[in-house]
Amino acid sequence: MTEHAFYPIGTPGQPWGAAEKAEWLSRQQRQRSYAEDVLAAIEPLRARFDVSEYGRLDYAPDTYPLLAVRSRDWREELPVVLVTGGVHGYETSGVHGALRFLREHAQDYAGRVNLLVAPCISPWAYERIHRWNRDAVDPNRSFRPDSPAGESAALLRLVAPLQGRVLVHIDLHETTDSDESEFRPALAARDGKPYEPDSIPDGFYLVGDTDNPQPEFQQAVIAAVEKITHIAPADAAGQIIGSPVVAHGVINYPVKQLGLCAGITDARYTTTTEVYPDSPRASPEQCNAAQAAAVCAAIDFALARQG
Q1: Which Gene3D superfamilies does the annotation name (predicted)?
Q2: What are the residue boundaries of the structural domains of the chain, listed by start?
């Protein structure tokens, strides 16, 4: 028997209209500062990298500059590595793992790859510790030409000139307990669908691309992260979040079909990380370190295969 969770906005079975979305928006409160946590952390990087504004979100009364960090020694003959974080603003280590990579590891790849890092794609949601943007749209289902999410559209414009040149794209995410307590029930309520409970995997895992799975690449990333934090096991059905486990800590999604960030390039090597910060076995430090280690492992594997 399917359980139905009560969500305090809307009428069960009916998709939200403007009134329900307005009620949802009225409940969202700023809980942390994009300027203090992210923009201030990017500022010192200007001494070693080129920092540019690739878009601006006008969410009155606030505006949010979207910043990208690039290799200063960009060379046209080098492969491009794209690192994205904070597509879902509440997934904290995606943002801070990307910043940690820039601070501590990015210089190791100078002259070997062109780095392009967008550490916080959804700053409004970062401040409110939420999955959606201000319009109750999930940016990570919105990476398509007619995107309804300004966050997604801005990143697509940033990446467009690099199509065909990206070797690696790693998109940094988390799976949290609030996925099951808040965000999945909210999604069901917003869309007028029944809520179907699922379990939260305890540990790190990767989401590869069904159409380009690259199993050796995925396992190289898992092996590097496993030195820092534990890898999520399959559940009793052999699945993680409802998808079959295809290798240790790896599931696959059709990323382009779903409009996911990991599908915005035709990179040979793509993956989405999923850290589990609510585990009693993982600290915020471990989560940030795991994200940075995943980026390094992804680049190292790709460069080794480049010869």
Answers
A1: Zn peptidases
A2: 18-306
Instruction: Tell me the C-alpha distance between 134 and 259, whole Å.
Output: 19
Nearest in space to 204 (alpha carbons), one of 307, 116, 97, 56: 97
CA distance 238 to 252: 13
Give residue 28's pLDDT band: very low, low, confident or very high (50, 70, 90). very high
Task: Say what the pLDDT of residue 35 is.
Answer: 98
- Amino acid, single-letter form, for residue 273: T
Q: Any idea which architecture 18-306 has in CATH?
A: 3-Layer(aba) Sandwich (3.40)
Residue from 163, 174, 125 nearest 294 by CA: 174
Distance CA 300, CA 307 (A): 11
- Residue 282's closest CA among 216, 202, 181, 211? 202
Instruction: Indicate the pLDDT class of residue 1, thresholds 50, 70 and 90.
Output: very low
The whole-model pTM stands at: 0.97
Q: At what angle do helices 92-104 and 284-306 cross, to 10 degrees?
A: 60
